[in-house]
Amino acid sequence: QNYLTGSVDNTAILWDQNGKLLKPLEAHQQEVTEVTFSPDGSKMLTGSADGTAILWDRAGNLLHRYANYGERIRTVDFSPDGQQVLIAGYMNTTTIWDLQGNLLQSLVGQEQWIEAARFDPDGNSIWTLSVDQSLIQWDLEGRQLQRVKIDFEPRYLEIAPDGQHLLIGSIGATILLLDRSGQVLRRFEVEGEQWSTFSGHACFSPDSRQILIADWNREPRILDLQGQLIQSFAGHRGFPRAVAFSPDGQTILSAGSDQQLMIWNRDGSLRNQSGGHMDMIDSAIPSPDGKLILSNALDGIAILWNLEGKVVHRFEGYAEDYGVDHIAFSTDGRTVMVGGGKNAIKSDLSGQVLQRFEGGDAVAEVVGFFPDGRRLLVHTTAEQLAVYNFEGTRLQSF
Fold it and tell me: Are the CB atoms for 305 and 313 separated by under 8 Å?
């Protein structure tokens, strides 16, 4: 099991489950905005504020650089079969590429930048969400299948694992639950309160039957698809910023402005509470087997925890000035990646660095990682997206 983190210092780092640094990925000129693994764990994709994305193999070899964006990358995604990548950002176009750097389709039809772009779980369509208040479903040939008008400026898109429902959230007080036909089923609003729905703040349970939401002014809570409260989790002294289900759905993670990581049972009882960060926790993710947790915060540190809330390893010392933007596990859970700014590291779980990527002058920012931990997607100073390996070799450019 590996972990992947990204940072505003332009780096991404890959770690193993013991907190050992495997490889830094330093190929971007600005902050790393997005990291992800391919479904089989053989590749990584990084996206950056410098407008590029990089595809990496598991060894950290650059496979391809996706270029010519010139604007901040907001979202990257792999197709379910891992053979295509989706890239979008501060432009009104979403692009589909193969792993060799060939442009397959440009999805043009929205008037402002794309907040989220995701492959449908069945792999046969793509959903894009724009600040122009539109949600569009596309086929793989670039044809619009449906267009849904949203009555607020959206910031977040979550697709249920079974593909039957979607969540759309705003920075304000609204979350929409839709079916895949675009019909709004539920509208969650709380009068006089603000619901925080930044990325990581609302998610479906592994069985797609429930929703976990972090409320800006209230405790995390689980709702069913009819909007009925199933369970709440009271204990944070500040607002929760990140929530997650464990892979088996039986453990709940929450973290936020109080710098606390909380591990809950499904019945709302607190299993463990831990403080190890010195600033707001930005995200917390479980390992594929659910036995470990990786968090990153605005203090520039990533921490690997066990379910008892004990620190397994602290990943620090490379991103204090910028912060860790991206973290990820490899699909086998044996290594992690940490990225921030231009750099990224791949590490085993003991903290030993396996691979280090330092982008240098040509790299603006790490965008994301491939799930196999061998490649990164970065944004370059030449306004390109590129795929690098962890040795710093550029494999492909877009």
Answer: no
Q: Structural domain tally of the chain?
A: 1
What is the amino acid identity at position 173?
Answer: A
Please give the full DSSP string across 17-80, using - where no structure is assigned: TTB-EEEEEE--SS-EEEEEE-TTSSEEEEEETTS-EEEEETTSBEEEEE----S-EEEEEE-T
Are 70 and 84 in contact by the 8 Å Cβ rule? The answer is no
Q: How far apart are CA 26 and CA 79, in angstroms?
A: 25
Q: Is 36 inside any structural domain?
A: yes
Cβ atoms within 10 Å of 250's Cβ, excluding its own: 12
Residue 284 CA, chain-centre distance (Å), reads 10
As given in the structure block, the two tokens for residue 100 are 């060799």
Indicate whether 198 pLDDT > 60. Answer: no
Q: The domain spanning residue 251 has which CATH number?
A: 2.130.10.10
d(CA 4, CA 16): 9
Exposed e or buried b for every residue in 71-104, given b needs 16+ CB within 10 A?
ebbbbbbbbbebebbbbbbbbbbbbbbebebeee
**Per the structure block, which two tokens stand in for 76?**
């990257």
78 falls within a domain? no
- Read off the pLDDT band of 301 (50, 70, 90): confident
Q: Are 223 and 213 in contact (CB under 8 A)?
A: yes
Closest residue by Cα to residue 327 from 354, 353, 363, 296? 296
Query: Of the given ranges (13-17, 179-183, 204-208), which has the lowest mean pLDDT?
Result: 13-17
pLDDT tens digits for range 229-251 = 999 898 888 777 788 999 999 99
Average pLDDT over residues 137-145: 93
Neighbours of 332 (CB within 10 A): 18
The boundaries of the domain holding residue 333 are 2-66+169-397
Strand order in the sheet with 221-224: 202-204, 210-213, 221-224, 229-232
Q: Once rounded to an integer, what is the mean pLDDT over residues 34-43? A: 82
φ, ψ of residue 361 in degrees (nearest 5): -65, -25
Instruction: Report yes or no on 107 lying in a domain.
Output: no
Residue 81 lies in a domain: no
The strand pair at 125-130 and 281-286 is best described as: unpaired
